[in-house]
Specification:
Blueprint: H1 2-6, E1 11-14, H2 20-30, E2 50-53, H3 56-69, E3 79-82, E4 102-103, H4 106-128, H5 137-156, H6 174-197, E5 199-200, H7 202-219, E6 226-229, H8 236-247, E7 251-256, H9 264-269, H10 275-278, H11 283-293, E8 301-302, H12 312-318, H13 331-334, H14 337-345, E9 347-352, H15 355-369, E10 377-380, H16 384-394, E11 407-408, H17 413-426, H18 431-438, H19 449-464, H20 472-481, H21 493-497, H22 499-520, E12 526-527, H23 529-544, H24 552-570, E13 578-579, H25 580-592, E14 595-596, E15 606-609, E16 621-624, H26 644-650, H27 657-669, E17 674-680, E18 682-683, E19 686-687, H28 692-701, H29 703-724, E20 747-749, H30 750-758, H31 760-768, H32 783-800, H33 809-821, H34 828-852, E21 856-869, E22 874-886, E23 891-897, H35 904-909, H36 914-923, E24 935-943, E25 948-952, H37 960-978, H38 1006-1009
Parallel strand pairs: 1-7, 1-8, 2-3, 2-6, 4-5, 6-7, 9-17, 10-15, 10-16, 16-17, 20-22, 23-24
Antiparallel strand pairs: 11-14, 12-13, 18-19, 21-22, 22-23, 24-25
Helix pairs in contact: 2-3, 4-5, 4-24, 7-8, 12-28, 15-16, 15-29, 17-18, 17-22, 17-23, 17-24, 17-25, 18-19, 19-22, 20-22, 22-23, 30-31, 30-36, 32-33, 33-34, 36-37
């Protein structure tokens, strides 16, 4: 073993512009990697080799490349081991080796560490009544993940827990001292718990396995060929394995993209482990050569020459260490203009306005690749949201891109189904999550698909639209059983009155109670995580079960979900107790770290890669997207457990080390013949900062070359814009349908006359098309309900006391108000506010009453009336708030307003005709029990929060009687006009306010024709 370690290492590199896997494959098969091993014509010889690669996906792609290179496409493949996801089965241990204990499952560790964080928060609260740490399951899981990451970092970088004792309390901010106290508790708790369970952290197990494999290889110098390729050895255990492999008699290491152009002074500067050096793309390789290989950079042999367009020298200059950037002043001496021109010849730059335009432009660029037979394209980005956007945009071309990263389980179809089940129960069967659950493709609730659709429609119309039913399954069933169509006239009357639909809704409510009731019953207080998990799993199974059974696709999808639940069940005993609401909030986080991957598409020409995966793949056109600060490279986030000085004192790597890895991945991905760099100018409406990689590249390229690259990238933006550009069409005109006279309404109320004047289309939609607006989901009672309650209370009070007020008027009016406001008690917050306002209103209303009652002989309240017009062909109806028979003669028509009061000028112009028409109706005895007399006054009473104010609806130069006659005459003219078959019901003929939108404006397409100039008033 000692002799092996004394051998000089056998090291190779492949420049970024050379395709990594094809070059590696050719060198392996041609005998350039291992002396005396050239299996290119022997399909059996490859089986004796072992190849270490960074990822499983790289292994699959190498297997494809080897098979394609062998004669006849048939061979026995070598043993391919992924270092990033190594397991015991993948390593060929000696028989005497006994593996380490099993790794603690990731979900179990998350739950246990979250429980530890929750206990810490409780202890802080009990200690001094303050909690300096964010609360809630999301925050606790985030802190648990950060703690797990710290544990893994310490294991990978071989930093012992004992070093926490070297940190001196009081030298840091109070929060860091508090965090340090917690870490010392975690130092004792976590290893003890793992020892009790007979487990170790996955990172510890991985490093133990890698170390054992290194020892095994060193002890077997005559073993078969061993190649490690594509790894930078960023972890000490991996670095030692690479050093061992490189020194084996039949071993070698192939490094990805070693920079052979960087001058020696700059290369030497990478030995400084401070933050500026750590952010350099070659920092990891420099440490690997210095610490583990102990050889100079010149000992590494390149397996291929850079391509003619190679950008290696340009990128080396652009990303050189900060300490030597003054060398840019002499750039022309090292990198002449023609070399930069060649590097930029195949480079394009897309600067999109936003993420949407960026995704569509990238989709266009990738779709264009398919126009060239055999060409390949790749999207390389760390932004998974952008990757999903591009995949969705490609579907408009009918192209499915291979994205083996998949999607988080929480965002998959079964994951969303599980979340909706939890949300519906946690929110007490609230209409919005319950409706979303009922419409989900996996929902069945024991019913056939057509039965469920019919029942969900009925349940929605009956109780889910409008005010929310009482919480829980009992509240839902009670709402269905107590449904009264007469009180729900705003819902579709045909569906509401159908007995079959009501029976369907009752059946569905019972099924929902049976399926979700046990989980919903846990809504109060905290419960063990295992209890919530078991109830949730049972609810999912009950919600999915149905007479039709599930499809194979659904069962396969639910199998992923079942695996997640089994993982959570395994660690449920270590999880913190929580409420059902907290469980529902934590569920997306618990499911998000489990990817749902589609099958690998063999031979795919378009693929999506993460930066690490892209290190070893080649594409004819590569799109590097999301090149903004905080995305690529990602933000150097502050560790919530350790400050930067504390990390340095412990010996942990600087956070900028991750920037160096991102920089290396960027350089590797820039080796494609056609390279497209892309970034959005705005994200979420806020301007972005270009990636530092772009800024440095622009600095060394010069403004002319950069502008030319932008011009080439703008071609994709223009093509994307053409896709989005709709053909020119003639704007529609203002609609004014003219139905047959037999279909036109012959009966309207006085309040609808104003609508008829201002927006005839609404009358058409309501009375000709008979369209009734539906209530929204989970609508809280608004001003209309409050106004109705006040009108009902004042009307009942005046009706029962028409001539004189009672002696205890305030108490009596409050009693009437309690009865009127009783239906609103189901909404405690609104009821408390509105009832308090009504109580303040009572004395003001009575003061107004005492001022008016002496003028009135009798008061008539909330009384209905009718008036035949146009020779009996039309009937005007109305319900007056109040009519007073005055002692001086005549009638006063009174209208209570809780909102805007029309001005006398608007009434005189005929745009607010309600009171004049009621006066005309009263003059002809249209109101029962009200004597037929002319109106002596039209009065609006504003029931404000601070005052009750009375205003006249009659201007000084006219009288109420004359105004009533004029308004009636105008109405007769309006009726006659609409009896003409050619007169249509125009949309927004005389709107009171510009920008006002009503219930039917979307049908009239107001936003379309009004923006074309038709709507200017």
């Amino acid at each position: 073993m000692t002799d092996v370690l004394r051998r000089p290492p056998r090291l190779f590199t492949i420049p970024p512009s050379a395709p990594f896997l094809p070059t590696l494959t050719d060198a392996l098969l041609d005998g350039r990697l291992i002396e005396g091993f050239a299996p290119g014509h022997d399909p059996l010889a490859l089986a004796s080799a072992t190849i270490f690669l960074p990822t499983r996906r790289a292994g699959r792609l190498l297997a494809e490349a080897l098979t394609a290179r062998m004669p006849g496409g048939v061979t026995l493949l070598p043993r391919i081991v992924p270092l990033g996801d190594v397991d015991e089965d993948a390593l060929a241990f000696a028989e005497s080796f006994t593996g380490p204990p099993r790794a603690v499952p990731p979900t179990t560790r998350r739950l246990a560490l979250a429980n530890l964080v929750a206990a810490w928060r409780r202890a802080l609260r009990a200690d001094d009544g303050r909690v300096a740490v964010a609360a809630g399951p999301g925050a606790e899981l985030a802190l648990a993940d950060a703690l797990g990451k710290l544990i893994d970092e310490m294991a990978a970088q071989e930093v012992p827990w004992s070093r926490f004792d070297t940190l001196v309390p009081g030298e840091h901010d109070a929060y860091w001292d508090m965090a340090l106290d917690f870490l010392k508790v975690a130092r004792d708790f976590w290893p003890a718990l793992l020892a009790e369970r007979g487990e170790v952290d996955a990172s510890v197990r991985r490093d133990t396995l890698i170390a054992a494999e290194a020892a095994r290889l060193a002890s077997l110098p005559d073993a078969g060929p061993v190649i490690a390729a594509g790894s930078t050895g960023s972890m000490p255990a991996t670095g030692r394995l690479l050093a061992t492999v490189a020194r084996l008699p039949r071993g070698c290491v192939v490094l990805p993209g070693l920079d052979t152009h960087l001058d020696e002074r700059s290369w030497a500067a990478l030995g400084d482990e401070e933050a500026p050096a750590a952010s350099h793309p070659q920092f990891g390789l420099a440490l690997l050569l210095e610490r583990h290989m102990r050889v100079p950079r010149t000992s590494v042999v390149s397996l291929a020459e850079p391509a003619p367009y190679g950008r290696e020298a340009l990128l080396s200059e652009a990303l050189r260490p900060v300490a030597t950037t003054e060398a840019w002043a002499s750039l022309d001496e090292r990198l002449p203009g023609p070399a930069i021109d060649a590097a930029f010849a195949g480079l394009s730059l897309i600067e999109a306005e936003d993420q949407r335009e960026e995704a569509l432009s990238i989709a266009v660029a990738l779709r264009e690749v398919l126009e060239t037979p055999g060409a390949t394209g790749a999207l390389i980005t760390p932004d998974r949201d952008l990757a999903r956007r591009v995949a969705a945009e490609l579907l408009r071309f009918g192209v499915a891109i291979d994205d083996s990263a998949g999607e988080p389980l929480s965002e998959s179809v079964p994951g969303r189904f599980a979340r909706l089940v939890a949300d519906a129960c946690a929110e007490g069967f609230a209409p919005v999550p319950l409706t979303a659950l009922l419409r989900h493709t996996l929902a069945r609730f024991g019913l056939a698909a057509d039965e469920l659709d019919a029942a969900a429609d009925a349940l929605e119309l009956m109780v889910l639209r409008g005010p929310r039913p009482a919480a829980g399954p009992d509240g839902l069933r009670a709402a269905v059983e107590g449904f009264d169509p007469a009180q729900h006239h705003r819902s579709d009357p045909r569906a509401a009155l159908d007995e079959g639909a009501r029976a369907h809704a009752a059946t569905l409510a019972a099924q929902l109670a049976a399926a979700l009731g046990p989980l919903a019953a846990l809504g109060g207080g905290t419960h063990p995580f295992a209890t919530l998990l078991a109830a949730h799993r049972a609810a999912i199974e009950a919600a999915w079960s149905g007479p039709d059974g599930g499809t194979l696709t659904e069962e396969a999808a639910l199998a992923d979900l079942a695996g997640a639940f089994e993982a959570m069940a395994e660690g449920a005993g270590l999880a913190p107790a929580m409420t059902l609401a907290d469980y529902a909030a934590a569920l997306p986080l618990l499911l998000a770290d489990r990817p749902v991957r589609p099958p690998l598409v063999v031979g795919a020409r378009l693929r999506i890669f993460g930066p690490l995966e892209a290190r070893m793949v080649h594409a004819d056109r590569a799109v590097l997207a999301g090149l903004v600060e905080q995305t690529w490279p990602s933000t150097v986030r502050t560790d919530p457990w350790l400050s930067r000085p504390m990390r340095a004192a412990l010996g942990l790597e600087a956070p900028e080390r991750r920037i160096g890895l991102s920089a290396h991945d960027f350089v590797q991905a820039c080796g494609a013949p056609e390279l497209i760099l892309s970034r959005p100018r705005k994200m979420g409406g806020a301007p972005t900062v270009p990636s530092r990689f772009l800024q440095r590249l622009a600095a060394v390229s010069g403004p002319e070359r950069w502008a030319a690259a932008l011009a080439r990238g703008d071609r994709f933006r223009r093509l994307a814009g053409l896709i989005e550009t709709a053909p020119r069409v003639k704007p529609i005109e203002r609609p004014q349908p003219a139905p047959d006279l037999a279909l036109r309404p012959t009966r309207l109320s006085v309040t609808e006359i104003e609508t008829w004047l201002r927006d005839p289309y609404t009358i058409y939609a309501r009375h000709v098309l008979r369209l009734v607006p539906l209530d929204g989901f989970d609508e809280e009672p608004g001003a209309a309900e409050r106004g109705s309650a006040i009108h009902e209370a004042l009307g009942a009070f005046a009706r029962d006391f028409p001539e004189a007020l009672p002696t205890d008027a305030e108490a009596v009016l409050r009693d009437y108000g309690r009865r009127a406001f009783a239906p609103l008690e189901a909404f405690p917050a609104e009821y408390a506010l509105w009832w308090a306002r009504f109580e303040r209103l009572v004395p003001r209303v009575l003061a107004w009453e005492r001022g008016r009652r002496p003028q009135a002989r009798r008061v008539f309240a909330e009384i209905g009336g009718r008036l035949p017009l146009a020779g009996g062909r039309f009937t005007l109806t109305g319900r007056a708030d109040r009519i007073e028979q005055l002692r001086a003669g005549g009638l006063a028509i009174v209208d209570f307003k809780t909102g805007v009061v029309p001005s006398a000028k608007q009434v005189a112009a005929g745009y607010s005709p309600q009171l004049p028409l009621e006066a005309a109706m009263a003059a002809e005895g249209g109101f029962r029990d009200v004597p037929a007399e002319d109106a002596a006054g039209l009065v609006y009473v504003r029931l404000g929060v601070t005052e009750v104010k009375e205003t006249s609806g009659v201007e000084k130069d006219t009288t109420a009687t004359l105004l009533a006659q004029e308004t009636r005459a105008r109405l007769e003219q309006l009726i006659a006009a609409f009896e003409n078959p050619s007169v249509g019901y125009a949309s927004l003929a005389r709107p009171m306010f510009r920008g006002r939108f009503g219930d039917y404006d979307h049908l009239a397409r107001v936003k379309e024709w009004s923006t074309a100039g038709e709507g200017d008033e």
